[in-house]
Amino acid sequence: MLSDTLCKSEEYQEVEKLFTAIKKKIEDYQTEAKKNFQIFVKDECTDKLQLRLLKYKDDNHDSLIVNFHPNLVRLLKEVKYFKQFGDEIPEESLKIYNKADH
Fold first, then answer.
1. Count of other CB atoms within 10 angstroms of residue 10
2. Which DSSP category does 9 fall into?
3. Choosing a second label site near 17 at 20 to 30 A (CA), which of 32, 59, 93, 96?
4. Which of 40, 47, 98 is nearest to 74 (CA)?
5. Distance between CA atoms of 81 and 75, rounded to whole angstroms?
6. What is the 3-state secondary structure (H, E, C) of 11-55?
């Protein structure tokens, strides 16, 4: 534990205020990022699950390509990171993630 003398010093008080302000900004950023991620999932990913997985490359129908939207790849990666860090995972994201083959 820190000594009372150190805790009462002006420098310590300044550092503590700065630390508290930075911590609050990080928490606010995380909250906003999670909210934006939920909007991203709802607006950008849910509809993409309805697309056909394979599609013709051109009008000649000579070859097929995989039609797996990059937003779905992003979603799977983000949920993987949420799990690794033990963060709360938005329900809709987790539903999509649990359907995927890993």
1. 7
2. S
3. 32
4. 40
5. 10
6. HHHHHHHHHHHHHHHHHHHHHHHHHHHHHHHHHHHCHHHHCCCEE
| Distance from C-alpha of 38 to C-alpha of 91, rounded to nearest angstrom | 9
Give 56-71 pLDDT, tens digit per residue: 888 888 888 888 888 8
Domain assignment present for residue 2? The answer is no
Range of the domain at 70: 12-99
pLDDT score recorded for residue 50: 82
Q: Which residues of the chain have pLDDT under 70?
A: 1-2, 101-102
| Residue 82, C-beta contacts closer than 8 angstroms, at least 6 positions apart | 88, 89, 93
Domains held by the chain: number: 1
Residue 6 lies in a domain: no
50 within 8 A of 72, measured Cβ to Cβ: no
The tokens for 84 are: 């690794």
In a domain, 72, yes or no: yes
